Amino acid sequence: MAFDPRQTLRDAGVLSSSTRPEIEEAFATLTREETDLLVSLKSRLPAVLPEVMAHSGDGQWTTPEVEAHDLDAAASCLCGAWSGSGSGAN
């Protein structure tokens, strides 16, 4: 029987029935070692990153909120200052 990382992750509770198909497909190419790592992290993450997991609702990741910033790249670029080619005044 061939190794199926998605089934292993489902059995371990890492993937659930509500996981989107495109996310499950991304896990299809994992090696056994990578799959084992994800399974072992499942129980460790809440202890290591409690503030992250507190915002994940029922333990499932939600779509992250994105905050857009309007930046004037030319005004905020300090390329000359970092490279030493300019004064950095611009």
Automatic annotation (TrEMBL):
<protein>
    <submittedName>
        <fullName>StsA-related sactipeptide RiPP</fullName>
    </submittedName>
</protein>
<dbReference type="InterPro" id="IPR054632">
    <property type="entry name" value="Aroma_sacti_dom"/>
</dbReference>
